[in-house]
């Protein structure tokens, strides 16, 4: 008889939480069977560890389980000699994960026993049997997943709400979406105002001004999220969400839903037509934004945030370009006197100032000194041309102009009393070398 006690740890697991509230649940049944098995091995000097390793409501498809991690820690600490489970799929349903678990057991000389499946992993036939059992366990898990996904898709095709994030304007009762009248008024207001302004930025600003906030949601951890100011993107999502016209979505497909619509078909179609019209005109506007000469350099001094390229239209055509404070665009909270500045005069003034600086005696001297050190004829020619940059500026391509400005300028501050150009002259020699290259 082995006089050294074999310390046995029992591990139990159940995938879902249903039934765990019962006085005698599945975890208790697994543990009782394992305890009886350990008791039957007293002649081998098996001793049960009193500590419980129970994972209730955790999948066997991964190893992210608190009790399993605790078991591993005790194994590494040398507190366990044998792990006892009711069935091997209680420990893992993944063949890959189980192989890692067995490697850990082997590393610390820990044996593994399944109460209902008798095998010996010290023999080749036992290892084969174990792999076969694990393969079937993994197959069963994947098959179950496929069935759940198929049922989910077929239910959505029938218009049944299958859970997830509850949209503003609805609440859940008996696993069905029903209209929350108070929130539904906000949704209707959003659609009405968008039809008037055709701008979800203006709608979000109006919502925030009136004190409306996003939907408050309670998590399983009892924490709450939401209740924040409306951002333009959140308004856009509401305006494009088919749930509000009484539909459900699955991937890229839209199906008629069981729930009642908040927005009628006519209003929904008008809103989508506006989005389609904006999308058709996006290319022209985007071309200007991508070519903005001072992009990334202009900042609102009051908010200390970037001023982005924007435009206005007249008779359906873009005619005016601006640099607009991003905080003003998003939240309408900018306190600056000039929240937007016309792009053309700002760019012209900045270019004139840069050309004046490059033409100054100090900079010309630096260029001459650098040109004398160069062996490359092309670089020397370029540096000489730089001294007369004001004459050659109009012949440069836009990317070349932008590169010169971004090298020379740290930032351009738009203030109530004018603009301030913060130059980047600390490493002017490096700028010239890179520009010449």
Describe the structure.
It contains 17 helices and 17 strands. It has 437 residues and is an alpha/beta fold. It folds into three domains: 6-144, Resolvase, N-terminal catalytic domain (Rossmann fold), CATH 3.40.50.1390; 170-277, Hect, E3 ligase catalytic domain fold; 288-436, no CATH class. The strands form five sheets. A six-stranded mixed beta sheet has the order 15-14-13-12-16-17. Strands 1, 2, 3, 4 and 5 form a five-stranded parallel beta sheet that branches. A two-stranded antiparallel sheet has the order 6-7. The longest helix is centred in the N-terminal third of the chain and has 34 residues, at 124-157. The radius of gyration is 35 Å and the shape is extended. The relative contact order is 0.06.
Short descriptors:
17 strands, 3 domains, Hect, E3 ligase catalytic domain fold, Rossmann fold, six-stranded mixed beta sheet, 17 helices, 437 residues, five-stranded parallel beta sheet, alpha/beta, extended
